[in-house]
Amino acid sequence: MGILEASRTVEIDAPKSDCYAIIADLPSTPEWQESMNSLEVLETDGEGRATLVEIKSDAKVREVTSRVAFEYQPEDGMTWEQTKGDLKSMTGSWVLEDLGDGKTRAIYSLKGDTGRMLGLLIKGPVQDKLKEWLTKDAAEGLKERAEG
């Protein structure tokens, strides 16, 4: 088993509300998160927000598929948990903090258990590179999208 845990923090020259609007628009995530190959919305809530999605991601050693349930904390971020997929388990979050003057701190966190088979492929330096790539991809992708 391989536990994959990582987070990345970026400061963004954009208001918190803009950053939240970007992360909450799940269908557009593959446009700004390079590691995400595709996202299909399976269920939505009463406000039309995606609550269950199927994501195909590039894990460098192979594509992984995850069915992920999302919970929204409007303006402050969101959390998610894999309900089914190639990983044994996965949880994550976005936390957004208002820094004033139209600036936002965004913290992206991931924790997953790759399970035995995928864990054999993702270990040592490969695991470190994957953690860096996944968190940098999301955090820097949000920054670029919000500031662009």
Strand order of the largest sheet: 1-7-6-5-4-3-2
Largest sheet: 7 strands, antiparallel
Count of extended strands: 7
Which ranges are low-confidence, i.e. pLDDT below 50, for 5 or more consecutive residues?
none
Beta fraction: over 45%
- What is the N-to-C order of secondary-structure elements (H for helix, E for strand)? EHHEEEEEEHH
Shape: globular
CATH class: Alpha Beta
Q: Provide the structure class.
A: alpha+beta
The value of Rg in angstroms is 15 Å
Amino-to-carboxy terminus distance: 39 Å
Helix content: 25-40%
Mean residue pLDDT: 87
Q: In the CATH hierarchy, what is the superfamily?
A: START domain
Number of domains: 1
Treating each run of at least 4 consecutive H or I residues as one helix, how many helices? Answer: 4
What is the CATH topology? Alpha-D-Glucose-1,6-Bisphosphate, Chain A, domain 4
Please tell me the CATH architecture by its name: 2-Layer Sandwich
Structure description:
This protein has a single domain, classed as Alpha-D-Glucose-1,6-Bisphosphate, Chain A, domain 4, CATH 3.30.530. It is 29% helix and 48% strand. The protein has 4 helices and 7 strands; from the N terminus they run βααββββββαα. It has helices at 16-24, 29-32, 115-121, 125-147, and strands at residues 3-12, 36-44, 50-58, 63-73, 77-85, 89-100, 103-113. It has a 7-stranded antiparallel β-sheet. Helix 1 (16-24) packs across helix 4.
